[in-house]
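Progress report, Aim 2. The chain analyzed during this reporting quarter is listed below.
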Amino acid sequence: MPKWKILFVVLVLTAVAVAVLAKDHLNRNIIRLKSGRIIPVDRVWESGADLFYENDKEIHFVRLADIQCIEKQSISLLVHTTGTRVTSVADEWVKALNPLLQGALDLTRHSRSTRWLLIGSVAAPVPLILTLRWARNRARKKKLVKPSVAAKEPGQEMPNRADVVRFFLGLFRHQLGVEPELPAEFVQLPSALSGPKQIYELRVKNGGEWIKRRMTLGPLGEDSGSRSKCYYVIFDQHLVVKIPPKPIKNFEDYIASIKKERHIVERLAPRECIVPKVSVILSQVHQLSSRPGTPPEVLEEKYIDWLRNNPAYHDYLKIRGTFVFFMDLSRYCFLSHIIDGLHDLTDPIRSEIGSTIDLIRYPVKFKERYGEEYESLGFEIRDLYYQYEAEVRHLLKNHDNAAAVTPYRIQAWFLNFLEKNDICQSDPAVPSEIASGTAAIFARLFEKYRGSAEAYLGAIRAFAGRLSLEQNRHIISGILTNLLDLLVWLSEKKVAMRDLKPDNILVAGDPQQYPAFLRSAADYSLGFIDVETAVYLGASGDAEIKQPLLGGTPYYATPSHLFPNRVLRAGFADIAGILHFQDWQAVLVMMFKTVTGELLFEHTAKLFGDIKTRVANALRQNEPLESQMEEVSRMYWRSAVAEFRAKMKARESALKCVEVAIPEAAKALFVQVLQRDIASIQGSIQNLVAGQRYFASTECREQLLKSSHRRICQLLGAMQAKMQTATPASDALLATQRFLQHLSTLKALIERKSQAAAALQRAAAPRLSAYEVILLMFNSVFTSMYRRDWNTLAEESPSLNFPSNDELSLATTI
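Predicted structure tokens for the chain:
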């Protein structure tokens, strides 16, 4: 064959290779970075200060601040990106083949035709490579279009998830001992982890090979309104990474922030308490010599002194230029993770669907398993299934392997569709055309029977929830007991944490026995993660209480979290009590969540944005905060009372089936608070009786004060009968009726609290339902934080009135 033909064939093959490489870039977006790098992507989405993009089925990140533009693929960009890949491949190819080519030339130095063939094979692509490089440089000089995603300057926002991953990528690079100039990257891997936790693969290129390792990262208290941003990290050990709301640039300020919490930790000892330490990260960067058994506090001080003499290592404590806090959680787990696990119904629902596959053919069994209200639903689901089965059978007639599709298999497809799964996931052997045809059939029938299908899934979900609650009842009961024990500990130590929530509570037990130790409350205890919002209530009066950080997590907080001590002192008689009852509010919300998996004040928490704005405006305009506290308190508690009644009524059955063993110290605390409430209610009754005019004589008023709830109800009945004969009823009679109604409620409440206190005192080891405990605690918090001289909630919202003095009505009474 002539030499020019050989060269032509080589040139054609090279062009084909270029076309194959270019094909990958057609119909794709291009991210152009400020560094000049161009990234072809399949899809993009923005999150915080980062742009996520998917490329070749891998998910990557790039900071928005590093992006110059995002644009559609064009011919010039196609040439540019393809040229980049071709030239880089060619460069590697030439480097790799150079020794081989040299050897081949040496071997063929006596054969001129062979030598020219080899030279032509290598030289033929050179003009094309040079052309592509020229086109790439020309494309770089073109005027760039404005990016569709606005780039944000570094430092404008707190470090985010991607910044945390980059930090640990740098730590990984340091552990490998490689040069900082070497390429490094990270990608998000597909993960079956529950919740927002994700797995990332860290990659560092060394010696021509990528060295890889994995880490897990997830937010803590995301969207909670908390001042700091926290992440849960698994990287050699379990860590909490806490990013302060305001950047900390000075090392001594950083150390002072860590040490200022030590007096709270010492006061809470020996209760487990995890606080930030520099040694958590520095121990992975530089090992200090120390004797075996050196106390952690001593080692921490050694690291702090070492850092003062080695400021270059400060960067290992920074993320995006600001010092951050690291806490070691290796020996513990989060209470939030345990609660989430108790209420994760994914597997129970799937198991229930799989174990009841025959129910779709036998509607009567719906009644036996799910209750009478679902009997008719069974027939509706059967009708849906029969139509589905008939159409699927018709679809299968045109396929050779239709006989292999058994009725059981069709039922499994049907249930997988109900569960919103692709049948290919559960039955990979299904041909694609059958899978798509079956999906189309189900989608059409699902629209027709949408109500029935959703009701069926609702019945399964409710059944799985009841079954899960029954199976986990002892674990839930133990958690509630330990929450009360934690609350008592804070009371005894005169500390208010002020930001209690599942994400801030650790579970301390034998790691080798997890999760078995959860079945006994005595086998583990609860401790604290981070104490930055805590305050010592002191023993010398309110004047000694330091001003804690304002703010809290809205789902677990009250308006009192947003006001300084001077305002609380002016508005309430007992500021220490208010700060203490902030923890009561958080604990009762956690108890509700532990039993139900739901937030008790999810809707009310949305008011915190408006409340913060009002307080901020009042401060800016130099207005008194006392009036703002009254206004926002009415707004908050009006919503909280309504939501409390609705949620407690809806989950009454579940709350009453869980019993709580009341610790001895909690029993004493409850009795003390109940007696305080009783005395306060007696004062309200005296003021109420003294303020009315209908029963004017001293004897009548004394009788009202001594009368029982039952006797007041009799008087109220007589008054209502009298009003029916008086047309129209006088203002005096209407006012007296309202007085007797209010008095009746207060009498019922004081009798209820007296009975509860007596029952607690009599019982050696009292047990109450979660429903009773939450009612008791909520009323005590409510009556402490809502002053009686403010407008009553019932007057502002008549819809809050209950027709009778039932438990919910009494629990929401002032």
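The radius of gyration is 35 Å. Residues 661 and 767 are 5 Å apart (CA to CA). These observations will guide the mutagenesis work planned for the next reporting period.
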